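note to self: dont lose this again. the chain is below, predicted strucutre after it. 355 aa total, dont forget to put it in the shared folder this time
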Amino acid sequence: MDLPAGSPGGSAGRYLSLYTGESPLIPARAFMLAPTDPRFRLPGGLHLLSVAGKCLHGPAFGRYVLALRRALTAALDPARIGVLHLQHLTFGATPALIRALPAHPRIALVHGTDLICARTHRDQMQILRETARAADAIVVPTAAMADLLLKLAPIDRRKITHIPWGIPDHLLTAPPARPPRSPTSHLRLLYAGRLTAETGAAHLVSLAAIPGVELSVATPQTQFQALAPLLQRTGMRIRYLGWLRRPQLWRSFTEHDVLVKPALAPETMGLVTLEAQACGLPVLYQPVPGLTETLAGSGMATDFTRTAPLARDIERLRTAPGLLTALRQAGYANAARYPLSATAHALDELGRQLT
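---
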């Protein structure tokens, strides 16, 4: 995965949980780029590549892939590798790994960022289509993701396997404790994720017109700063939490009443919603493909694009006796369906079939 080690985000966290640690769920040679933060504690089994020049398009992208391929070729013994787990259909690590180990079977894992990036960068669209053709199996976490992939890469649907992304088992068995809730008339809302058009960032402003809510935001700093002028014009007060690493994010779930998910585009799976549910945080969400499949009625669907119904649903959450408790229990049950160990077992079994 050509991200610097220590990068926040769901895909990076899932990657480390699957392939690294003292007893990895999937024994592997896992690689990331050298961390930008020298204080980052390297997990066991993670190997670093000191390759500069990460980019997405143009001649520089070709040079970056070549540098990654050379670094991987020097680090890997092909005789000790059984199958390639390509963490994306796009970006630089995927073509570099295929070229470094051209004879090995390949499992490609699809993320929403792959499809978004392919739509906006011609070079990445080419990489996505080449990878989809070259992969022996393509893993999608939801049926919606399979449909979106097939619109961009016309391949045989029989190559696609549905394996939901999981959340760490310890989050299901021993979630962080929720502190006692001090009496208040306000509903503490949390938004966690990137602030983009696809994630419905602009519709967070709709919350400014709704009384009785407090909003916290965990997002990259540059994206929060870009949205800040719009928020200031509304007079809305927002608590900025930073772009949190997974353990920090899990703790923040226990300090809020509801996770808001105003996504307007189809979601890969909505991993953060499952993590929130595992930590006892109910989810208020826009019912888009992928997210409706993941939550399966365990959260509350609403329309973030229309202030009136959104305000009614938030008022229900704030005042209806027992509603938050019922959603919390439904969320626990739903999250329990997605242990990461089950994801690892399914990926491992798929690899055995290919080898």
